[in-house]
Design goal:
Elements (H helix, E strand, L loop, with lengths): L3 H4 L5 H7 L2 H30 L10 H4 L49 H11 L11 E6 L10 H19 L2 E5 L13 H11 L5 E5 L3 E3 L16 E5 L1 H6 L6 E9 L2 H11 L8 H11 L10 H11 L1 H4 L3 E4 L6 E2 L7 H14 L12 H8 L18 E3 L16 H20 L4 E2 L10 E2 L7
Parallel strand pairs: 1-2, 1-3, 5-7, 8-9
Antiparallel strand pairs: 3-6, 4-9, 5-6, 10-11
Helix pairs in contact: 6-15
């Protein structure tokens, strides 16, 4: 390549003709000859260097360049998970487990024995799942296998499911959505129990199975279950002991959201609980028993919630010690007492963030839990549950029936649908903020606005 300074001189045609002579011809030939020698020398030196490398000039490692990337630097990527970098989902040793036993069943009505031992053996054969096993959660939810009768029902269920997926993604939980009757005779209220049973068998790596009804939405995307509180319990439900044991009310707890440990106790308990269901010949008998036991029960059928309260009331000594009635926070909260508080709660959180730089700092969604921990000291005065200004953990639209549209006569369908939109957008704003946007109007699901830097300073 000719250097820039040489290109600045352009001799005229007359000057060119004056230089055309013997000297110029000799000079040009000399330059060409010298250039040819130099090229030849470089070519020979290059070949010699590759063929006979000296100690001070190591040869290029072409073998390393074309090696399998999975073993680069001596590390086999298939073993990375075993070294603590994650779970190894490609490893399933040939040693037999409970899965190889033809008697193993996923169905309610076929009791499983020695489940705790079988889970332990499975984990021993899959060591990458051991780390974090005590806190591993699988969330379950679902809906009917047919389209909703309510014209906007399927859209609402999609948004409720998105809400759960968002929560699980933020906290690293797995989620399974079921829309079939695994045991067709166990319909309506009872359809969830076969799903929970099958999930325990198909996910031995999960310590907890978390059922959340399709019409329940997470409204605090930061809050996590206080699992340490439940370390000596196997079933957690939102409930009040005085309503169960003193008032004998079938609404002493809510069975639409519950956390159950993946263990033998739970399998045994679910078999007893499910024995009141429609798949048994005693279904009608149980309906009469539950109706006579709970004077406030308004329908004659045996249902899962009344059945659970009945077991606590009548068999407390057998099951009660392992069932935790959570009443300190909104493990699930009644939507009517929550919806009208959302505006005030949003303002309280914005005021908090205006005064604390770290809480309004933009960050990756993957590290959201860190900011939840930083926020906690500023929420000590907020309280929990009703009348507090802490975000409610889960808002449950009991009685609204978004899929069928057959809502409780206590309130109008429009109040249900508008409230669902408010709640879902309230939750969605917490998610969208990490993407730089927000719904300015909770009743407008279609419109978002970009957030300025350092919002809400």
């Amino acid at each position: 390549m000719v250097s820039p300074e040489h290109t600045q001189f352009h001799p005229s045609p007359m000057a060119k003709s004056l230089f055309r002579g013997k000297a110029a011809s000799f000079f040009s030939d000399g330059v060409l000859f010298a250039g040819g020698i130099m090229v030849a020398f470089l070519l020979v030196w290059g070949v010699w260097s590759m063929a006979s490398p000296g100690p001070s000039s190591p040869s290029p490692n072409f073998e390393r360049v074309i090696s399998d990337p999975s073993v680069a630097d001596g590390i086999d990527s298939s073993e990375c998970a075993v070294e603590g970098l994650g779970v190894n989902m490609r490893l399933d040793p040939p040693e037999p487990t409970f899965y190889d036993d033809p008697k193993t069943s996923y169905k309610i009505g076929t009791p499983v024995k020695n489940w705790d031992e079988k889970r332990r053996e499975w984990l021993k054969l899959h060591p990458s799942f051991v780390a974090g096993a005590a806190e591993r959660i699988l969330m379950l939810t679902g809906s009917q296998p047919t389209p909703c009768k309510n014209p906007i029902g399927d859209h609402l269920l999609l948004r409720f499911f998105k809400n759960k997926v968002d929560y699980c993604r933020i906290h690293g939980y797995d989620i399974f959505y079921n829309n079939v009757l695994l045991q067709p005779k166990m319909f309506t209220f009872w359809a969830k129990l076969p799903v929970v049973r099958a999930a325990m068998m198909s996910h031995p790596e999960a310590e907890w199975i978390w059922w959340v009804d399709s019409d329940a939405a997470f409204t605090d995307m930061e809050f996590k279950l206080p699992l340490e509180r439940y370390r000596n319990h196997n079933l957690v439900v939102h409930g009040w002991s005085n309503l169960i044991y003193d008032d004998k009310s079938w609404t002493g707890l809510n069975a639409g959201v519950f956390l159950i440990r993946n263990c033998q106790w739970s399998l045994d308990f679910m078999e007893v609980w499910a024995s009141m269901g429609p798949q048994t010949p005693d279904y009608e008998k149980w309906g009469k028993t539950l109706t006579s036991t709970f004077k406030d029960k308004i329908f004659p059928e045996s249902d899962d919630q009344s059945g659970l309260v009945y077991l606590l009331l009548k068999e407390k000594d057998k099951w009660g010690d392992k069932i935790y009635l959570e009443a300190e926070y909104y493990f699930e909260g009644y939507w009517e007492e929550i919806v009208e508080t959302l505006h005030n709660i949003s303002n309280k959180y914005l005021e908090m963030e205006k005064g604390v730089n770290t809480l309004r700092r933009r960050h990756a969604e993957k590290v959201s839990e860190s900011y939840a921990e930083q926020r906690e000291p500023y929420l000590k005065q907020a309280g929990n549950g009703r009348y507090s200004w802490r975000r409610p953990f889960i808002t449950h639209f009991t009685g609204c029936q978004p899929c069928s549209g057959k809502h409780n006569d206590m309130y109008s369908g429009q109040s249900c649908w508008n409230s669902m939109q408010k709640v879902l957008n309230f939750a969605d704003n917490q998610v969208l903020r990490n993407f730089g946007f927000v719904h300015p109007d909770l009743l407008d699901s279609s419109t978002v606005s970009p957030l300025p830097f350092n919002y809400p300073a």
